[in-house]
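Aim 2, interim progress: modelling of the adenosine-5'-diphosphate-bound target.
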Amino acid sequence: MTAEKMSFKTEVKQLLDLVVNSLYSHKEIFLRELISNASDAIDKARYESLTNKDVLEGEGEWKIRIFADRDAGTITVSDNGIGMTRDDIIEALGTIAHSGTQEFLKALQGRDVKDNPELIGQFGVGFYSSFMVADKVTVISRRAGQSADKGVKWESGADGSFTVENFTKEKKGTDVVVHLREDEKKYLDEWEIRNVVRKYSDYIEHPIVMDVVREKESEIKKGEKYKTTEEEQLNSGKAIWLRDRSVVSREEYNEFYKHISHDISDPLEVIHYRAEGTSEFLALLYIPSHAPFDIFYKEYRIGPTLYVKRVQIMDHCEELIPLYLRFVKGVVDSSDLPLNVSRETLQANRQVEVIRNSLTKKVLDTLGEMKKNEYEKYTGFYKEFGTVLKEGIHYDFKRKETIADLLILESTNKEAGTYTTLQEYVDNMKEGQNDIYYITGTSRDEVAGSPYIEAFKEKDYEVLIMLDEIDDIIMGSLGEYRGKKIKSVTKGDIELDKEKQAGREEAQKKYRGLIELIKVKLKDDLKDVRLSGRLRDSACCLVSDEGTMDPQMEKVLKAMGQDVPVTKRILEINPEHPLFETMNALFEKDRGNPLLDEYASLLYGQALVLEGSKPKDPAAFARSVADLMTDKAEHQIGSK
Ligand code: ADP
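Predicted structure of the complex, ligand included:
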């Protein structure tokens, strides 16, 4: 059968164009990507061979081979792993939309990736990096367990199309033949290959071998030399997590991290330990330095790679780590789990729970230590992953206090960029202050001028500033800390001064009629109108009942297209503000004055603006304000 010509999927085409035309540095990483794919293919075959001996095809040893062919100008990475069928190859190397491709294309528009093509692996498009050095790539493959004539040959010159044809391949697995461009022939040098493998692929568990020509001295005829070819292993090859911590260098840990995470940066922290006792396992975990672009996406794959007695079982085992630690990457190698565990049986497995508890504790302890001993590093971590970590307060009831201790928080008593903790907050509470207070918002500036904290400022009470969308839910879930209630300054009735309580009751009597009138006027929008204990300078504000959703969260949910039940709020007015004295005089003179209606709407409008929302009818609101401005100006120049 002749070769069939097919087109790449559009986005793959775009991707290839960019790889060929814009990536110029660190081109050697193409070898790392091909070796990494070969290693994954072997892991898959080894796993499948547990239940299906046919895929072994009598071959005992898993190996990745590199051939450099000077005459042909090609470098080939060959594996005896799982291989691909014709359909697999068409899909994997040409037509499937790789999850990261869109993001990669976006990132390529920026400078970051152009200067750092190592990023390419992060987006799951590693194979295509071979086109940085090749004008043509040929892939010959055969699915393990199928007959030799079921092989397939794929070929492309990155010109928008590729060909596929049937091909007889004696051994299972895949050969990727990279036809090097004239100016990239250095990758044929033994020395160069050796260096690249050492640098980027030393951690690969399977042997990476190459035939090397050695000159030897004849044993028969002294002084005479002859050439011999020997297969030599280029990587050290022992799985890194099996080695003792004391003999693994930080560089080795880092390279392995880059292999499993597809991250370009070094990890922030390495956690490597052996658990003994109720459960025997080895864990090598990493806390990355930067959040991956997709950590909040549904497609983000969670959990370390699970090995059972050195055999890779699955590459992202969600059951091993709670969702709020989903930034953790790594490997867990268990001695107790059965080799035939599956995603379904994992869930009910006791051992898995033991491992999960151990990993969770270890990561939280490590973060606690980091916060104590390496504060700057910790704040770096927190900026990247704090939002994810605090989800744990909501989801992990048992550990919510532990996680609460890991929070670092902005507050009205701290400069921007410096933080307090709940413990420090409690230690600094003022005489007579019973509760912990926080305010949510979208920026520090907005919060700093907020009417909600006027009374707190006056009393010099510290207010925690929470700017993450989920903060209100998190603080609500936490509820209290070290016996102190946690309260939102925008919710419930707040009166910090017992003495002022009496004054409020008096004002209540005085303004009863006016308040009734405002209530009636705004009854469709508001649950209640009452006098405020939290305002000092502002005229009014909107508050919610305790335990209800705050307006930030409402906005987020609405933006996500969710049906948010309308919760009516309470308008609080400041009895000390001169406006109410005036309004009340107007009211007492003529309670039918239409100006009172307009003022009631304006009060509600400004309360909405103050909490960061829009007035119900922005045009009418603006008109009223303009009218008032005109009135005041005319009044001043005496034309009225
Ligand atoms: P990734 O490896 O991140 O999925 P790649 O672009 O490097 O992305 O590879 C695409 C797909 O091609 C792989 O997911 C795999 O299915 C297939 N593939 C690549 N190389 C091999 C190989 N040596 N053996 C078997 N399959 C392979």
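DSSP finds 21 helices and 22 strands in the chain. The first strand starts at residue 4 and ends at 7.
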